[in-house]
Specification:
This protein is of the alpha/beta class and 331 residues long. Helix content is 31%, strand content 18%.
């Protein structure tokens, strides 16, 4: 989703969602689908990992984290930080995530989130040409120095239209995206062996293009991510069932790689025309993910932003999420 202005945190300026926390539902590179049981995973995650993107600074607040866990009926496993490549390394927040007994997931975004998508200095060609190597090398060194497990998303939703790295806009090509990803991977993996990499397109829907030609290959990817939102019946959007929203894109990901776990890395649903519509969507969502052996995990976008995506926007949606999550965890 498109970004917001960053806000200051001590000496660091952390991009749009950095102080918002989530749990990325992923497993190690050899972890099969939740419904198939698990083998040893690099980060020793639970069998059925799940998570959420919280709308408060939960990386700093046990109380915020606990309130969300009480709503959902379980604690998320991983917590999510967002940062621009030009931001300072948020070690204090990574440490606080560890203190919450979670593994951090860092979305590293090559742009200035205060400006918007039209930023020529962040076109894919500039990354391929090495113009951002110093920032990537700094992040790699600092992540490696930190030394603990971290999952890294880079330049996500490349098949949309809302980022400087969007393929098809600003002269960006799929070949350049692949080359930019490989360059980032080479730099980070050389100095931060504690990092694993999550490649994340947006679901195939209105306003997106195909993502297959953007895949850099299993050698450079540990997890296949996927972001998808049901925006509801609003101008430019229409209500989409979980099956319609995710299934075709999950199938496309599985065609790209038979080996990598698939994670729904951002999931949200707007409120519907009646109070029970979102609750029904959430129940159907759990039916879809539990019925699809290719889906390893998911994370919910727990914030009121462009829409009220929160699982608890209505009492019935809260209960539907709690019931579905309980079944997911024990499946």
């Amino acid at each position: 989703m498109a970004g917001e202005a960053p806000f200051a945190l001590g000496e660091a300026v952390i991009a749009r969602r950095t102080l918002l926390v989530a749990s990325l539902a992923v497993a190690g590179a050899l972890l099969p689908s939740c419904s198939q049981g698990s083998t040893a995973a690099t980060f020793s995650l639970p069998k059925c990992p799940w998570g959420a993107f919280l709308s408060g600074p939960a990386s700093q607040s046990r109380a915020t984290f606990d309130r969300f866990a009480a709503l959902a009926g379980a604690e998320p496993d991983l917590l999510h930080l967002y940062a621009s490549t030009r931001d300072s390394h948020p070690q204090v927040h990574l440490n606080k995530i560890r203190h919450l007994k979670a593994i951090p997931v860092l979305s590293l975004e090559p742009w200035n989130p205060q400006v918007g998508p039209s930023q020529p200095e962040f076109r894919l060609s500039s990354i391929v040409a090495g113009q951002h190597d110093s920032d990537l090398q700094r992040w790699a060194a600092e992540l490696g120095s930190w030394g603990h497990p971290v999952l890294l998303r880079f330049a996500q939703e490349m098949n949309g239209t809302w980022y400087p790295w969007s393929v098809g806009l600003y002269g960006n090509t799929a070949a350049e995206y692949r080359a930019a990803w490989v360059r980032m991977h080479r730099i980070v993996s050389a100095q931060a062996p504690n990092a694993e990499f999550v490649w994340t397109p947006n679901v195939l829907t209105e306003g997106t293009r195909d993502f297959v030609d953007c895949y850099p290959g299993d050698r450079f990817v540990d997890y296949l991510g996927l972001d998808g939102y049901n925006w509801g019946d609003t101008p430019g959007h229409r209500w989409q069932s979980p099956e319609k929203l995710f299934s075709a894109s999950v199938a496309a990901l599985r065609q790209l790689s038979a080996a990598r776990p698939i994670v729904l890395t951002e999931v949200g649903c707007a409120d519907g025309a009646d109070p029970g519509q979102k609750a029904r969507w959430i129940s159907e969502f759990f039916d879809v993910v539990m019925g699809n052996s290719d889906v390893t995990g998911f994370m919910w976008f727990q914030t009121d932003k462009e829409r009220d995506w929160r699982l608890n926007s209505t009492p019935s949606s809260t209960q539907a999420f709690r019931d579905g999550l309980a079944n997911w965890i024990k499946s």
